[in-house]
Specification:
This protein has helices at 6-19, 46-64, 93-106, 111-114, 128-131, 159-168, 172-180, 182-192, 206-219, 233-251, 261-279, 293-302, 305-308, 377-387, 392-399, 441-463, 467-471, 478-487; strands at 21-29, 85-90, 116-118, 124-126, 137-140, 286-290, 321-328, 345-352, 363-364, 374-376, 437-440. By secondary structure, the chain is an alpha/beta fold. It has a domain at 159-251. A hairpin with a 5-residue loop joins β3 (116-118) and β4. The radius of gyration is 24 Å and the shape is globular. The structure holds 2-acetamido-2-deoxy-beta-D-glucopyranose (12 copies). The chain crosses the membrane at residues 438-462.
Length: 493
């Protein structure tokens, strides 16, 4: 009796599944394979470029191509429509180049036919490189130069997050591991003593030691990798898990949420972007952001993903991606008046550890300790808002910073309106530090510079500040990052 219903149920399930429509997507990706942090400047390698390009191609086949498996409603498949896509990365060579590689996979060259145009006088002009296309890259302030910074908080510029991460070095768990692993690190010293002194060869530098050996195990010839035979699978695994433990301790602590400031900013960026897709009826559809593993780990902690899988305690591999899909079962028409309302929309979270491809696809995970990887939009927003830091002012308060972009003048709290001169990209924060997002590429950089210079001028005029004190603010150079890392467990300590 019962059996006769099965085919019917199955066909119902598959037809309603087929009815699900993806309205928008946010992808947060780590860079591809790079050179080691201890041999700066870090560069994206050829292997790394191939990894992000492969991921980009996978996401093209999932969301963009005309025969995509989860095609985003109304997205252009071949020729880019700039208003549909937002791509961003911090000012960091490895991350920016990774983003460019990913985007070429997402929207590859269109070839001779689409990539040509006919002029008024009849001449047909061919676009170079087989019809290559570009997507402007916005720059986000958080994470500037992160791949050259040895310390996890080196690129956040958030005072309280740095203090909180430093607390980790006083924790019983850290001190116990430091003591327990002393002889283990001594045993790997012959492989790394050209880079780390014996005083630096300890759990204190667990990540940078792992990073150096991981890079060497992929790239170095035997001639440039002394005592490589010491790096057995078991030793490598030990180095990796110790690095995981170390970085997790710096990235997240339940009783001190500010430690996870980067994850809090990511949460806010995701909600803002997806909300924009809903409120503007799907005008903007696809967001791609590149960033460091530190922000991913912070987000894993804040969003309780460790309850979904203990793997989330580990550092995600190169080219890992976090994906938030905006989905609906409502009928979606082509006109904007037929766009579903917020209560018909849900969010699905997916993650893939390492390069994504059609033989290794992202997996759904439930956020916030729930048991469903699909969350109604309103629940998603309220949970994300609990962990988000979404304005420059909130950032300054949470970080305990009160100078520079956090001075009352910059925050527009003392009569002047420096803030309002911001970019036209829809961002409502001023540039400089904290959480702002500026306009695209080279032009973007110049606009940002102009905004900052303008702001500095105003502050000089209005606040009567001295130029000397302002200059320090821009302090996101590798030197200053590693400098603070040195006090705090960076390689120099
Ligand atoms: C990265 O590239 C620069 C040149 O662009 C080079 O000087 C530097 O040595 C490279 N870094 C590594 C670790 O290979
Ligand atoms: C057509 O216009 C283009 C661009 O102004 C020019 O380079 C080309 O020589 C013109 N061709 C003819 C046939 O006039
Ligand atoms: C916040 O304060 C820390 C510590 O004083 C400093 O290193 C950082 O540059 C400040 N950040 C900004 C954006 O001013
Ligand atoms: C580790 O702790 C034990 C006991 O507290 C102490 O005797 C030992 O010297 C410590 N080892 C190191 C390497 O600090
Ligand atoms: C590194 O350790 C090896 C083996 O102990 C030793 O032969 C070598 O001289 C050391 N190199 C440096 C730069 O200290
Ligand atoms: C790997 O090679 C680089 C130079 O390309 C060198 O700086 C680094 O020390 C080597 N790593 C190891 C573990 O020997
Ligand atoms: C969180 O931080 C507090 C204070 O720094 C520390 O006592 C505690 O052990 C930390 N918790 C974990 C899980 O590391
Ligand atoms: C979404 O955007 C609208 C319009 O900008 C705004 O009023 C609303 O507060 C936003 N909602 C969330 C959850 O951010
Ligand atoms: C990713 O994979 C590595 C092993 O390659 C593992 O150590 C780590 O825990 C994984 N991270 C996540 C977030 O799944
Ligand atoms: C759409 O319906 C299917 C079948 O009932 C269900 O599995 C899926 O979760 C629904 N999707 C959304 C976004 O509600
Ligand atoms: C996976 O991708 C490769 C290369 O793009 C393609 O040849 C192959 O057909 C794809 N396989 C599936 C199952 O989509
Ligand atoms: C994460 O889980 C803990 C314990 O299970 C709970 O107290 C906390 O509220 C959860 N946090 C979020 C953001 O859901």
């Amino acid at each position: 009796m019962h059996y006769s219903y099965l085919p019917l149920l199955a066909s119902l399930a598959s037809s309603s599944l087929a009815a699900e429509t993806v309205l928008g997507v946010y992808i947060f990706s780590r860079h591809g394979d790079r050179t080691a942090k201890m041999t700066p400047p870090a560069n994206l390698t050829t292997l790394g470029l191939e990894e992000v390009y492969t991921s980009g191609t996978y996401y093209r086949n999932r969301y963009v191509a005309s025969d995509a498996s989860h095609r985003i409603h109304g997205i252009n498949s071949d020729l880019i429509k700039q208003s549909q896509i937002t791509a961003s990365a911090p000012t960091d060579t490895v991350l920016q180049n990774s983003a460019q590689g990913f985007l070429q996979g997402l929207y590859p060259p269109v070839g001779e036919t689409l990539g040509s145009s006919t002029l008024r006088n009849g001449t047909v002009v061919q676009s170079p490189l087989d019809g290559i296309q570009f997507i402007p890259l916005q720059t986000v302030t958080t994470g500037t130069n992160s791949e050259n910074s040895a310390w996890l908080q080196g690129a956040t510029n958030c005072a309280n997050a740095q203090i909180s991460s430093n607390n980790y070095f006083q924790s019983a768990s850290y001190l116990e591991t430091l003591n327990r692993t002393h002889s283990f690190y001594t045993s790997v010293a012959p492989m790394i003593n050209r880079t780390f002194t014996s005083a630096q060869t300890s759990f204190k530098n667990a990540y940078t030691i792992f990073d150096l050996l991981n890079v060497a195990s992929i790239h170095n010839t035997s001639a440039n990798f002394p005592h490589a035979d010491l790096l057995t699978d078991e030793t490598f695994f030990q180095l990796r898990t110790l690095a995981d433990q170390h970085e997790w301790g710096l990235a997240y602590n339940e009783s001190e949420p500010i430690r996870a400031v980067t994850g809090a900013i990511i949460a806010s960026e995701v909600v803002k972007a997806l909300n924009g897709t809903i409120t503007r009826q799907g005008k903007n559809k696809l967001n791609i952001q590149f960033g460091a593993y530190a922000g991913m780990m912070s987000y894993f902690g804040l969003a309780n993903l460790t309850l979904a899988s203990p793997d989330f305690y580990g550092v995600p591999d190169y080219a890992s991606t976090l994906v938030w899909e905006l989905v609906t079962n409502a009928t979606v028409g082509s006109s904007s008046s037929e766009f579903p309302s917020a209560d018909e929309i849900s969010v699905r979270f997916l993650f893939h550890n390492g390069t994504t491809s059609n033989i290794s696809e992202p997996i759904e995970y439930p956020l916030f300790g729930t048991d469903n990887s699909l969350m109604p939009w309103s629940d998603f927003v309220s949970s994300m808002n609990k962990i988000s830091i979404s304005s420059q002012k909130d950032w300054c308060t949470a970080c305990g910073n009160s100078t520079g972009v956090c001075s009352p003048e910059s925050l527009g709290e003392s009569g002047s309106s420096v803030n309002s001169s911001s970019s036209s990209s829809g961002s409502n924060n001023s540039g400089g530090g904290g959480i702002s997002k500026a306009v695209a590429g080279v032009i973007g950089a110049m606009v940002t510079l102009a905004v900052i210079l303008g702001a500095e001028l105003l502050i000089l005029l209005v606040g009567g500040y001295r130029l000397v004190s302002k200059k320090r603010l821009a302090g996101t150079s590798p030197e200053s990052s590693v400098g603070s890392g040195a006090n705090a467990g960076g390689p120099k300590a």
